[in-house]
Amino acid sequence: MNDSNNLLVTLFLLFVPLSLLSVGGGVSIIAPLHQATVLNFGWLTEQQFVEVFAISRAAPGPGSMIVPLIGWKVSGVGGTIVASIGMFLPSSVLAYGVARLWNRYRGTNVHAALERGLAAVAAGLILAGTLAIFQAAGTGWLAWVVAGGSAAILYWRNINPLWLLFGGGILYAVVMHFMK
Amino acid sequence: MSEPIRRAGSPIPPLGGDDPLDPPPGLLELFWVFSKIGIFSFGGALSSWIHREVSVKRRWMSETEVLSSLALAQIMPGINVVNLSLFCGQRLRGVTGSVAAVMGILLPPTILVICISTVYDLFSHYAWVSDLLNGIAAAAIGMLIHMGVKSTQRSARSIPLLLIVAAIFVGVGILKIHMVIVVLLLGPLSVWLSYRSVMAEQHARAETKS
User: Fold this and answer.
1) Which of A9, A69, B20, B208 is spaced 20 to 30 A from A26 at the CA atom?
2) What are the residue ranges spanned by the domains of chain B?
């Protein structure tokens, strides 16, 4: 086995346990990823890791886009594919089993009760997650205005959220520009 | 679009699942819708995009179905959004559907993130770039607030369920207790309360029929 194959195997074996241990939106894997890629294997420098993190947060898509990006930085296309499969396949197989079981009992009273009960749980978790993101973002009054304004517009007008995202981004950049 | 304001003690509105649903989409359409969510979800808030595309803009699944899938997706190992896409795909088109939805939510953003990382060096020294991104992220948080309000209105069908929503928000959001612990403690209570109301509704329906 040559070196690049070795690298791909190592990359794969790094992500498989993270796939099954991570719970949440991808934030929980940041600390172990930093430890492995920067401290243990030295694939990335500290600065590179911070950049990879920032880019994966800014890019659209699931918060876990840091995974394929690390694969890309470490070993190009092969690394991207191997890291993604290692991260997303094991948890997906498990989730598929649960989804099948879940939908098999559709229509029963117990299923209806589970569905309603879990919907209330989800509502609480969405509110808690929103607060957590706001605290992590650590931004000032302007962010509150943009977030509150966007929420209010969506509540009363059924517009495409893309307009709000671009409007919010431009408003924020313009206000910050004049405040400096 | 707007729902009538419901006071405590007023009759329970119909289950989300009672609204007529659209027929399930083809695989290509499923892949396309999840790709669109993956590509346009700047700043995060993917679950609210999925909720919007799958049960508000289209009626593929009821809101209660999407929300309960979201709760399951969050307590399962793996990335929430990927799990939620898989649940939707499985519900709509079985195995191939779940593959189409997961590929849609992952593949285009992967290609995009690599492109963005490649051009990043060209623009990283402009302050307005990070300001723009902060503004986009703030608007995305607004989408989440909106979804939180909507899903509370939809799912807190009674005062006890509203208290469950509030307790989960306080436990996870403010007290920072681990989500799995809070869900394991309050989830069964929430399901039990819902079971009682499902049985009560069934009973009421049986009474009116007879």
Assistant:
1) A9
2) 3-151, 156-210
